[in-house]
Automatic annotation (TrEMBL):
CDD domains: NUC. It is found in: Mitochondrion inner membrane. GO terms for molecular function: metal ion binding; nucleic acid binding; RNA endonuclease activity; single-stranded DNA endodeoxyribonuclease activity. The lineage of its organism: Eukaryota, Metazoa, Cnidaria, Anthozoa, Hexacorallia. It holds the Pfam family Endonuclease_NS. The keyword Cell membrane does not apply. This is Nuclease EXOG, mitochondrial. It comes from Acropora cervicornis. InterPro entries: DNA/RNA_non-sp_Endonuclease_sf, Endo_G_ENPP1-like_dom, ENPP1-3/EXOG-like_nuc-like, Exog_C, His-Me_finger_sf, Non-specific_endonuclease.
Length: 386
């Protein structure tokens, strides 16, 4: 097992006390709100709280420091000044982009410092991954919802050695061109290893889409991670930044998948994938982690309104089988055929495919014939315009 995964799990082993305090605090809150509106509850709740606190010494002290009563939304600076004796709110609180940005087929939280998303949430169905939307009509561009000062730009990625990696893939929104276009906003993009983006990560995205054949609803959260390495006996986090805007290059990428259907139990899987080339010897299971481990390292609670204990392991239930090397060769040639800029280039790719022993299936033949017709029409139009 990878060293970083072992480090991840050992790191989590010492958080039992924190988790206990969190769960106990949640229990106290639940007890209070479920009983505080009854006369009988007032006495019983106090007794229950006293019993719980007696068992957990760390809850006895400093409650006045842990409990904060925030001012109401919309309170102006003058009102805040009367609340804080030291005038702490005089010049306002630090501000960031909206808590989340909502698009047609995905929602994301943007990290203004790293110029990448923190997380991107999608909801897939078999209807959403089919349609006439085409990425050739989409353009990578800064997200106008993000203040210009905190945006990344295409120039940051240009000649950086890193590709523009979608967290919400374009192919997940084939049902609507606007939805697909939104996936090309740079708020949805991270610097990603080119081979990783075009191969292993693509295979993982394709697997997510295949789940819609077996489950009516598939929920996915994706994002970047910046994990530590062991160096001179210390844990060190280092990562590259690119471009004038210092866009952070993640060390890893994560994906959490929750699939459900009325006729079967829900399945759940969490994965952490290194941001580097991954060959076909690796299975998706090699990068599976517990949901708790990923939450600890990301600082995020995934699907907080879903009881993860009620879900089966995704890879145990569904197999987590990715596209084969042979299938990926077909897809790779399909991309090249689709992107051929001339009839001559199209025929060169078609001939190369045959020389490599790749037998075209109906998928490749359809791409080849459609692109051939389109290029012939462009050629005839060019002749008429002369």
């Amino acid at each position: 097992m990878a060293a970083w995964l072992k480090s991840l799990r050992s790191y989590v082993s010492g958080v039992g006390n924190v988790a206990t305090a969190f769960l106990v605090g949640a229990a106290l809150t639940k007890i209070y709100y479920e009983t505080s509106d009854t006369v009988h509850g007032k006495s019983s709740i106090q007794k229950q709280i006293q019993e719980i606190v007696a068992k957990h010494d760390n809850l006895k002290h400093g409650s006045h420091l842990r409990v904060i009563n925030p001012p109401r939304v919309g309170t102006n600076v003058e009102e805040l000044d009367t609340i804080a004796e030291d005038n702490i709110f005089k010049y306002g609180l630090p501000k960031r982009s909206p808590e989340y940005l909502r698009f047609k087929n995905h929602v994301l939280c943007y990290d203004q410092a790293k110029k990448t998303p923190r997380w991107v949430l999608e909801h897939l169905t078999k209807e959403k991954i089919k349609g006439e939307a085409d990425r050739v009509h989409s353009v990578f561009k800064p997200d106008p919802n993000v203040p210009a000062f905190f945006q990344s730009s295409n120039d940051d990625y240009w000649d950086s050695g890193w590709s523009r990696g979608h967290m919400a893939p374009a192919s997940n929104s084939k049902y609507n061109q606007d939805a697909m276009d939104a996936t090309f906003l740079l708020s949805n993009i991270v610097p990603q290893d080119l081979d990783n983006n075009a191969n292993f990560w693509y295979r993982l995205e394709a697997y997510c889409r295949s789940l819609t054949k077996r489950y009516s609803n598939v929920y996915i959260v994706s994002g970047p991670l910046y994990l530590p390495k062991e160096q001179d006996g210390k844990k060190i986090v280092t990562y590259e930044v690119i471009g004038a805007n210092n866009v952070a290059v993640p060390t890893h990428l994560y994906k959490v998948i929750l699939a459900e259907d009325n006729d079967k139990e829900a399945v759940l899987g969490a994965f952490v994938v290194p941001n580097k080339p991954i060959n076909f010897e690796y299975k998706l299971q090699d990068f599976q982690v517990s949901l708790g481990d990923l939450e600890k390292y990301s600082g995020l609670a995934f699907f907080p309104f879903f009881d993860a204990h009620k879900a089966n392991d995704l890879c145990v239930s569904d197999g987590c089988k990715l596209l084969s090397k042979e299938r990926m060769e077909l897809i790779s040639f399909g991309r090249r055929l689709r992107n051929s800029s001339s009839s001559e280039r199209l025929e060169m790719v078609w001939e190369e495919m045959k020389q490599n022993g790749v037998i075209p299936d109906s998928y490749l033949i359809d791409i080849y014939e459609k692109r051939k017709r389109a290029l012939m029409q462009e050629d005839r139009k060019s002749v008429r315009d002369i």
